[in-house]
Amino acid sequence: MRIEMPKYMERVGGLRIFGVQKVLELTGGKSEGPNIGLPGIVNVSRGDLEDLESKMTIIVPVKNENPKVLEGVLSGIPHESFVIIVSNSTRNTIDHYRVEMDTVFHYYRLTRRPFIMVHQRDPVLSDALPEAGYPYLIGNDGLVRNGKGEGMVLGLLLAKAIGREYVGFIDSDNYIPGAVNEYVDIYAAAFSMANSPYIMVRICWPYKTKFVGKRFYFRRRGRVSEITNKYMNLLLARVTRFESGVIKTSNAGEHAMTLKLAERIGYAGGFSIEPYELVYMLEEYSGVKKPRFTDVVKKTLEIYQVEPRNPHIHEERSEEHIPNMLKSSLSTIYHSMLADDELRKRIENELIIRGALKPGESIPEPRRLPIIKNVDAVKILKLLESSSESFIYAE
Ligand SMILES: Nc1nc2c(ncn2[C@@H]2O[C@H](COP(=O)(O)OP(=O)(O)O)[C@@H](O)[C@H]2O)c(=O)[nH]1
Ligand SMILES: [Mg+2]
Fold first, then answer.
1. 101 C-alpha to ligand 1 centroid (Å)
2. Which of ligand 1's atoms lies nearest the C-alpha of 150?
């Protein structure tokens, strides 16, 4: 994969936030030849990408997606990567989770690729999580809470138990397997160019692709992302005192980290998780306070943002999904210790204008989920293996 080196970088305390980089060629060819050493460009060989991908776990959150689309997503994930599917699909008269299990298991018979699959609301987790030292995902009904963030953190705990060096996320509603494949290559390419054990790479969709009339229409990013990025950059400016537009991936569902970093940041429930990761890193590692893990600041935490070539075509949600998502996203910035009254007021107004908040109504806090560093993740895996009905571990 041939890819631009970042042209721009914001250095904030222990963070290096790189400006968006573009993929130049999906397959960059052999490194030898006239192109070698072009300034500002790197070519990561197929072999290097594959090496990194064999050290990667890919977590796929699922909720009532079309099983054919899910199978397409799996087909795009490189064979060597270990897949963890965390599903919150409904199990009523029609047991959607059972359909997913059949689909994935049938696919496994044909491809023999290692995977884990679990239902987010599995009752075994009600005991397993507190016993392992992480009760925070459990809700009032005694089961793991509904929510994308909760599913992703559960996936991270299992990835920690598996112990591979890198961990990434891929949404299960992506219609283009080639895009999925490119995202994982991008994760690997960014890891190969980084200089720290603490790395995050976030996919920056250049467009949201829609079908309008008889044609595709490429709209510059999603509505929620544009707005969240604006306020995330203003939050960053509260630290640096210089406004910038460097952050372009506040809502990136597709992102990856070293496991070492994944263990050292906090998360949030529902759709707050992706922007909250950034908020957490700004609060913890930008130098405004003494971080809990000083090694991260010493070695620096690198955040890459990469623009892929494939269009992003995913499931269209209902219209009310948008204001809810916006509220979950902006609440992470609104309730940040870095936000001041002026920023809070602007966020409130934005939410009111967008119909996501009534005047006078308060903005709920994101459901914060603590770091997973000291959790006995292997215990969770063992308890699931021994007594769960929804759990599959195929090696
Ligand atoms: N495990 C799990 N996955 C979820 C949940 N809610 C949504 N997802 C999945 O998360 C991904 C992103 O959700 P989506 O509604 O498409 O949000 P958007 O793409 O950010 O607008 C999809 O793959 C969903 O199937 C949940 O409660 N639990
Ligand atoms: Mg989606």
1. 18
2. 28
Residue keyed to tokens 């620096």 = 300
Q: What is the pLDDT of residues 72-92, one digit of tens each?
A: 999 999 999 999 999 999 999
Closest CA to 285 of 231, 277, 19, 332: 277
171: Cβ below 6 Å to ligand 1?
yes
pLDDT at position 37: 64
For residue 148 and ligand 1, the question of a CB distance below 6 A is answered with yes
Domains of the chain, start order = 2-207+251-268+284-319+370-394 (3.90.550.10)
Q: Which pLDDT score, from 0 to 100, does residue 320 have?
A: 79
Q: Which residues surround ligand 2, an ion (CB under 5 A)?
A: 173, 314
pTM comes to: 0.96
Spacing, Cα 388 to ligand 1 middle (Å): 23
DSSP 3-state percent helix, strand, coil across the chain (nearest 5): 40, 20, 40
Pocket test for ligand 1, best of 68, 83, 117, 171 (most atoms within 8 A of CB): 171
Supply 97's token pair. Answer: 């989770």
Query: Rounded to whole angstroms, how far apart are CA atoms 126 and 384?
Result: 11
What is the atom index within ligand 1 of the atom nearest the CA of 271? 20
* Predicted confidence (pLDDT) per residue in 348-391, tens digit: 999 999 999 999 999 999 999 999 999 999 999 999 999 999 99
Measure the CA dihedral 200/30/177/208, to 10°: 60
